[in-house]
Amino acid sequence: MNALRSVVLGCGSYLPEKTLTNKDLEQIVDTTDEWIVQRTGIQERHIAAEGEYTSDLGLKAAQAALANAGVDASSIDLIILATSTPDNTFPASATTIQAKLGITHGAAFDVQAVCSGFVYAVATADAYLRGGLAKRALVIGAETFSRILDWEDRTTCVLFGDGAGAVVMEVREGDAAEMGEGVLSSQLRSDGRHKDKLFVDGGPSTTQTAGHLRMEGKEVFKHAVGMVTDVIKAAFAATGTTADDLDWFVPHQANKRIIDASAKKLGIAPEKVVTTVQLHGNTSAASIPLALDSIVREGKVKKGDLVMLEAMGGGFTWGAVLLRW
Ligand code: UT7
Fold first, then answer.
1. Last-in-domain residue among 175, 200, 235
2. What span, in angstroms and rounded, lies between the C-alpha atoms of 61 and 167?
3. Which of 10, 120, 137, 192 could tie 68 with a disulfide, CB 3.0–4.6 Å?
4. Range of the domain at 133
């Protein structure tokens, strides 16, 4: 029996030129390079230039993904941008990217699931593609979290950074039994009771300001490992696969300790775990495609490889996508 599958054709990413190291942060808040590295693994993050917006970052990542996929922008009929830091309250920054790519057909919209945004966006694109609403999609994660940080709060400002990543996905017909290429399982969850543990204290309907990020880091940490391992196990169960079958584990890049603890709990071998948090900090919805692109650019991902994407963040939202490259 044949089944429709959403296949990843290519990947790309972009980090702003300016870097902010842990040593730089020592000049801004009461912190140390040692504390940040020990508690998070982060060494530096990138900061968007003045006048450089989320859509600019997303556009560069999208162009890199199109080039990597070897397809033209005109063939894209769906753009989903995962972001919590859009250029404006509306329109969706996805439409800005669409216009800058010269696309005037199809649909473009933003998805807001904070750090889980990219997983939500891939799952949404997969559903649209298999549902016949589009044929070829650009799925982008782009953020300028530096713009919503309280630069006097050392418990949050050292953790986040700006960046973008993207994939091109296309619908194809495959053999349902073979678990061939493409997205094999998407597992999405949310629980709004945890809103106050990670949120932004502003917004159009409340304060009419963008607001600043607030986080009870320890509380988020406490829930993170359990939540992500649950959805990953659900993805394994849905596909009859195990941690041993996995070639690449591409987690949300928030904290090296969370990544390592999750991989250990799931029995995923360290060499399969992709960690780039040291290079860009927590870039929210951009972190998974940034990590994914690092192994794609190094030529490590081979056709047929089994790849697990996972994330957890504000909401809480969390989720996993298992796909065959
Ligand atoms: O992407 C969405 C998901 N978000 C996350 O996954 C973040 C999850 N949380 C975390 O990654 C960690 O909880 C943090 C990295 C945020 C914090 O690590 P922690 O081991 O949970 O530290 P803590 O919050 O318990 O703080 C320990 C100490 C405190 O001092 P006292 O009370 O022990 O005297 C903090 O005041 O570290 C202090 N501290 C700092 N010290 C130096 C907090 N921030 C800093 C800092 N520099 N930047």
1. 175
2. 9
3. 10
4. 2-175
Statement to judge: residues 244 and 168 lie in one domain: no
Each residue's pLDDT tens digit, 100-138: 999 999 999 999 999 999 999 999 999 999 999 999 999
Tokens 């079958």 found at: 245
Q: Are residues 154 and 235 in the same domain?
A: no
Q: What is the dihedral of CA 134, 135, 136, 138, to 10 degrees?
A: 10
- Residues 57 and 157 placed together within one structural domain of the fold: yes
Question: What's the confidence (pLDDT) of residue 176?
Answer: 61
Residues 154 and 194 in one domain: no
Instruction: List the residue whose alpha carbon is closest to atom 18 of ligand 1.
Output: 39
User: Do 153 and 186 reside in the same domain of the chain?
Assistant: no
Residue 139 shares a structural domain with residue 14: yes
321 and 183 in contact (C-beta within 8 Å)?
A: yes
Mutate to test the pocket of ligand 1, among 221, 278, 284, 318 (most ligand atoms within 8 A of CB): 221
Strands 44-47 and 78-82, bridge-based pairing: unpaired
CATH code (residue 50): 3.40.47.10
pTM for the complete prediction?
Answer: 0.97
pLDDT attached to residue 177: 62
User: Measured between alpha carbons, how far is 318 from 187 in angstroms, rounded to an integer?
Assistant: 8
Q: For the chain, what is the domain count? A: 2
Point out the domain boundary residue: 175, 210, 239: 175
User: What is the number of the ligand 1 atom nearest to the C-alpha of 220?
Assistant: 8
The helix (H) or strand (E) run that includes residue 82 is: strand 78-82
| Nearest residue (CA) to ligand 1, atom 47 | 31
Q: How many C-beta atoms lie closer than 10 Å to residue 186's C-beta?
A: 24
Residues serving a catalytic function are 115, 252, 282
The residues lining ligand 1, judged by C-beta closer than 6 Å to any ligand atom, are 31, 35, 39-40, 115, 154-155, 158, 217-218, 220-221, 224, 254-255, 258, 282, 313
